[in-house]
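Example record

One chain of 733 residues, shown exactly as stored in the release files.
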Amino acid sequence: MTVLDDRTAPGPATSGPDDTTAPPDGQVRGHGWFGALARFSARRRRLVMLVWLAVVLLAAPLAVSLSGALSGAGWEAQGSTAQEVRDELRADFPQLGAEAAVVVYQQDAPIADDPAGLEAVVRGLDGAPGATAVVDPLAQPAEAGLVSPDGRTALIPVGLEATEDADLPESAGELIDHVGELDVPDGARVEVTGEWPVWSDFNETNEEALHLAELVSGLPTIILLFIAFGSAVAAGLPLILAVAGIAVGFAALHLLTGLTPLSVWSMNFSMMIGLAVGIDYSLFIVSRYREEREDGRGPVDAMVGTLATSGKAVFLSALTVVLSLAAVLVVPIMVFRAMALGMMLSVTATALASLTLLPAVLIAMGDRVLVAKGHDDPDRAAEGRWARWTGRALRRPGATLAIGLFLLLGLAAPALGLRLGMPGARVVDEGRSSRDGYELVVEAFGPGAAAPLFVTVPAQDAEAVVAIAAADEGVADARVVAEPAESGRTVVRVVPTTAVDDQATSDLVERLRDEVAAEVPEALVGGPAAQNHDLTSVLLGRAPLAVGLIMLVAFLLLLVVFRSLTVALSSIVLNLISVGASFGFAAIVFQHGIGAGLIGIDHQGFVDAWAPLFFFALLFGLSMDYQLFLLAAIRERYEATGDTQLAIREGIARTGRPITNAALIMIVVFVAFGVTGPIPPTELGVTLAVAVALDATVVRMMLVPSLMGLLGERNWWLPGWLDRRLPRVKFEH
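Predicted structure tokens for this chain:
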């Protein structure tokens, strides 16, 4: 074990990679699953590496082609009114429904005076790739509202070819490419917008951002790993392991697309989390293995000790993250489930690689992963500094705790005024056809015209619905826009005075539903804004259940692992405070726009409605990451010494440098994925980076030592009846 005071550590063991049967102390230590896993991976290292090589080679084609198998679909609340309207439009009014895109044509002169340009575009759309039907605005009555009031802009509804939602972004992309090649008169513009063109552009932007993030994060990560280990060989291992885990996770996600459509959003988030935790877990295992070898133990014995401690913590950390994300599956929204499944698979695969492949590789590489002879172990060299800092916190625990709480609670305060919303076309960068087309529609027709509401209603009641809608001050226009279908129903288009992502539009949806239902119970209000409204309602309705499950699982896991009600409860409270501070930061930047320009985004005036629940699951899981590693080290020292104060000091000292290095790398990865992508990944990446920074500094350096110092022996309190019933998890050494 590590001794902090006046310790003289032995030099590195000199046994090579094949010295796996005779450790220096003559006996391989460690029992149980992790000891067995360590011995198997060490002694069957060639087999383990060959199996992983085969798995990665088989996974690679599926991983590389994942983006093409994902969909932009999935933001509908299953069973909602908006979904019911969407299905009805798809079946009976396809020119208005889910398969429709809008080609926007604008010229300097009034179209009525010079229609040649528009006519040429309409002809050019006939038989366009990805298109099934084209509505000529010049052939429609003025009441259809397809020509702007100033006469310079026209909307051309185009049906998209698709057998399922997953095909729609691809069809929209083909249409965008085709329209981009059309000849238009000088001074004229033509763009393609609508839900699926937005998703097509988002998917393309998302994939480009993914590759850019890999490049941006690569060099800083390599530098930090080299600094952490002082060895190029050791520094390369976490990256190799992370990539292997991500490849397997991506392949598994690809296979799942054969069973159910999955959102493209899962790709960025899976890559970001997989890379971050993969490097994180590998770093802890490599650091602990080198420490074990520095203490003079042979390769197998050192690996058994590593997996019995750090390996066990890696397993528990991964389990916590996976179970936290699993709670998101209670939300009946496909994109949520896709993102959660993607990240669960990535975390599982990277943890598995860290616990099997990494031990085999470490044993095979022998002394090349150790600190060079004549050089001090940087982790051990830093222990004294961390011990001194912890000693100061323990001498003034009350003041340290108060300062830490003040910082976090102050940062959390803006979260009390958190405003939620769902983005529209602004989720795509300017310069993309869908975003530019959206801006043209807003400019020519008003902010609500880009995403009108659709009310499906029996034809005989349509005018009554028009009258109700027109009387609302939040409505710019209301009119019947379709001939009755065989069902006897028609469609009323309602154009709000506000944009789709404005809270006033969501309020309008609620008012219309109440007012229309009172007069025409068979009428259904749908459209993009209604879809967002229903989505937000479902998220808020299911959030208490998901949050409760996350906290319950985390509490039970901590209770079993550390056999302490005090540790379990205090960890939950500290994590809640840390997550609250991260939410407050998100509100400051993404809602209020403070500092938004520094990361290259235009703030939306709200935080995406999907973010709080998803953030909570991820942040709570990741907050438990360092908490588990830190508490495991403290518990290990307490079991060895029986002295809580010494255990706190030595536990923090031992984990100080590895956790700091891991946090820095994780922050680099999160920031890289955040600042290179569209707004949703930016929200997630930047917020996670701040959360990790807070956990690695304020929580670990201030709150944990001061609170545990104040509690003393009460940290380990557990009622006798519960002690007899809980399984025992020992961090042995």
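Notes: The two ends are 7 Å apart (CA to CA).
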